[in-house]
């Protein structure tokens, strides 16, 4: 059994709250490491929070303008040498299937000027193994979820973050990322996704109401959609059953504006249902355009609504945006609405960033317009890059 396989087995056998301690011991023994640290990305994706026993943890580091943040942003190992101490600190991304969780930082003694690529490669395998185990461990321990908090979450935000599938994911056919603001006090905006061999389902929702009421409404709708999707129903039937669930609970007094999409991965054909949805934009060949959709009733507004999907076709290189009204209706301190021109500029200015980083960057630009005061509404941005299925791919 090689060292990586032995490490994976040791992590699987460890108690959930001890997996990082086990990994740290393995790295210290294997590489004679002087320090091993795990930093988790916080909910706002602006800080890297050290994992430790609360409240006795180290200070968080900014995602931007820090060495670990460089590894996190580029999703590549980054080495920092300290010649006087004869050490090198290797910062390694901790990610699983495109979902960026944090950074593993390992300080090693060195005799020469560099650390070998084989060592960095082996350390990255350790970081990858840790990422998979963190995702599993979060079902049974709060250690890693607590480490993600730069401040306390509201109860509504707690409910919303637990509802989400992740904040980014990637496959050969596509890459996507999403972010919610205000991260620690989100109300009802939400997103969801699920992929199979040939299909990717996305939902993006504009929440209605505030606080717990908004979170409860969104939780009901998202779980109703998941229930229908997991029963193998069509996109139309998924919308219909979720509509019935929400209307049955609230009688039309509350409803949820939702955009439902099914991507057929082999061809790039898309089914879309615009149920009073967030807006959809497309960046194609450098040109930004809104995608005009056939507006239908929000989920739960009326009883027995029949939803009809429309069809679109994607081209390799397309970038799609799904944006809630908390973005394009945001007001400056002087009452000026965030214009479509400003939104188009934001889409264009982030065109070189990977999809996983685009939502955070766009929301940061929005904050510059809105100011630092309390947000009047949730803001959601999702970005999807479509590559198309590689020729000869087997699934």
TrEMBL record:
Entry-linked Gene3D superfamilies: PPM-type phosphatase domain
Domain PPM-type phosphatase: from-to ranges: 173-386
Tagged with keyword Hydrolase: yes
Keywords, alphabetical: Hydrolase
GO molecular function, one term: phosphatase activity
Record has Nucleotidyltransferase as a keyword: no
InterPro entries attached to this UniProt entry: Bact_Sigma-Reg (IPR052016), PPM-type-like_dom_sf (IPR036457), PPM-type_phosphatase-like_dom (IPR001932)
Short name of one Pfam family: SpoIIE
PANTHER family: STAGE II SPORULATION PROTEIN E (PTHR43156:SF2), STAGE II SPORULATION PROTEIN E-RELATED (PTHR43156)
Entry protein name: Serine phosphatase RsbU, regulator of sigma subunit
Organism: Actinacidiphila paucisporea
Phylogenetic placement of the source organism: Bacteria, Bacillati, Actinomycetota, Actinomycetes, Kitasatosporales
């Amino acid at each position: 059994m090689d060292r990586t396989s032995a490490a994976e087995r040791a992590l699987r056998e460890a108690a959930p709250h001890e997996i990082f301690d086990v990994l740290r011991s393995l790295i210290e023994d294997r590489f004679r490491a002087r320090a091993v640290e795990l930093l988790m990305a916080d909910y706002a994706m602006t800080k890297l929070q050290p994992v430790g026993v609360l409240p006795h943890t180290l200070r968080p580091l900014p995602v931007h303008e820090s060495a670990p943040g460089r590894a996190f942003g580029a999703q590549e190992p980054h080495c920092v040498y300290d010649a006087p101490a004869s050490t090198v600190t290797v910062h390694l991304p901790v990610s699983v299937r495109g979902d960026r969780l944090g950074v593993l930082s390992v300080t090693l003694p060195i005799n020469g000027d560099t650390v070998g690529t084989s060592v960095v490669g082996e350390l990255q395998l350790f970081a990858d193994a840790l990422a998979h185990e963190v995702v599993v461990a979060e079902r049974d321990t709060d250690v890693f979820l607590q480490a993600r908090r730069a401040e306390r979450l509201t109860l509504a935000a707690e409910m919303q973050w637990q509802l989400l599938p992740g904040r980014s994911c990637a496959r050969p056919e596509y890459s996507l990322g999403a972010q919610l603001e205000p991260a620690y006090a989100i109300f009802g905006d939400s997103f969801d996704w699920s992929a199979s061999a040939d299909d990717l389902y996305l939902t993006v929702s504009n929440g209605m109401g505030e606080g717990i009421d908004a979170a409860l409404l969104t939780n009901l709708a998202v779980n109703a959609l998941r229930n229908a999707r997991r029963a193998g129903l069509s996109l139309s039937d998924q919308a219909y059953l979720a509509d019935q669930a929400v209307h049955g609970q609230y009688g039309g007094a509350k409803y949820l504006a939702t955009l439902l999409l099914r991507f057929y991965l082999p061809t790039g054909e898309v089914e879309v249902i615009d149920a009073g949805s967030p807006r959809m934009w497309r960046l194609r060949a450098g040109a930004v355009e809104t995608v005009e959709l056939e507006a239908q009733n929000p989920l739960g507004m009326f009883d027995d609504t029949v939803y009809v999907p429309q069809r679109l076709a994607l081209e390799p290189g397309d970038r799609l945006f799904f944006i809630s009204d908390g973005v394009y209706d945001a007001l400056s301190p002087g009452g000026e609405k965030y214009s479509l021109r400003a939104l188009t500029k934001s889409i264009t200015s982030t065109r070189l960033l990977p999809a996983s980083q685009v939502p955070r960057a766009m929301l940061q630009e929005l904050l510059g317009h809105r100011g630092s005061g309390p947000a009047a509404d949730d803001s959601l941005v999702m970005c999807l890059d479509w590559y198309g299925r590689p020729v000869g791919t087997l699934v």
